[in-house]
Amino acid sequence: MTICSRLRPAQFFSSPVSRTFSSAKHILNLKPSSLSFKPHSPNLSSPLSTRIMASTQTIEHVVLFKVKDDTDPSNVNAMVNGLNGLSSLDTVLHLSAGPILRNRSSSFNFTHILHSRYNSKDDLNAYSQHPNHVGVVKESVLPICEDIMAIDWVAENLDGQVSPSPGSALRFTFLKLKENLGEETKLGILGVIRGIKDSFGQINQLTFGENFSPGRAKGFSIASVAVFPGVGELEAMDSNQELANLQKEKVREFLEGVIVVDYAVPLPQSASL
């Protein structure tokens, strides 16, 4: 399952968080020869977090699934329920899986997403190798999926709750950079992404980073997730097209492709009377 979703640079970001990285006062000149960006240095003396509050360094793990068109709905539900059941594993800080709310890119057709968080890469590895995880993938995921993509990154700037509240809306953006870009250019792009939260007050939380699992990412190397209180706030942000159109030009020349998907964390189901 290594089909790669490639997008033309002109398709870069179809909405403000996916297209907009910073307000006008935070615009960076992203010419490779002039970029200068100081990487964020985490406070390693801070204590590890609980499941409620984030640590200084959190591992983000996102998987996109394309379910076969002729799959029986009961088998899709079994996959989603099986994946969500993995949230009980000891190393998992947060896990939520379900259907994609909207995809903002026309060159791929993923249908479902899993988003999870961990305290370390070792914890992510323990999750991946756990017999329960292996069983769900073998019995419920692989038989009904025709394409799978996964991206992992270290979030050194996570602020607030580790687990987005039920009803929250999440926007995931994955960037595929053109070949042979210098490190200063990459760091500059990350620096611009850092400015998103300052530009849009609707965003509760933003993390971003470079993918460290290239074998499963189809060439996409930079990822981010923006968390909103709900779908309404996400849609309100999308209405700011003028700023989005201004900012997307700052990075478009460096991109070969982009994937943008929205996901709503499910609300608890009420018990039937």
Keywords:
single chain, 273 residues, alpha+beta, five-stranded antiparallel sheet, four-stranded antiparallel sheet, 9 strands, disordered N terminus
SSE order and pairing:
Elements: H1 16-19, E1 58-67, H2 73-85, E2 94-99, E3 102-103, E4 112-118, H3 121-129, H4 131-141, E5 145-155, E6 169-177, H5 183-194, H6 196-199, E7 205-210, E8 222-228, H7 231-238, H8 241-248, E9 255-264
Antiparallel strand pairs: 1-4, 1-5, 2-4, 3-9, 6-8, 6-9, 7-8
Helix pairs in contact: 2-4
What pattern of helices and strands is seen along the backbone? HEHEEEHHEEHHEEHHE
Structural class: alpha+beta
- Given the C-alpha coordinates, what overall shape results? globular
What is the topology, as strand order, of the major beta sheet? 3-9-6-8-7
The residue fraction in helices comes out at 25-40%
Total DSSP E strands: 9
Gist?
This protein has helices at residues 16-19, 73-85, 121-129, 131-141, 183-194, 196-199, 231-238, 241-248, and strands spanning 58-67, 94-99, 102-103, 112-118, 145-155, 169-177, 205-210, 222-228, 255-264.
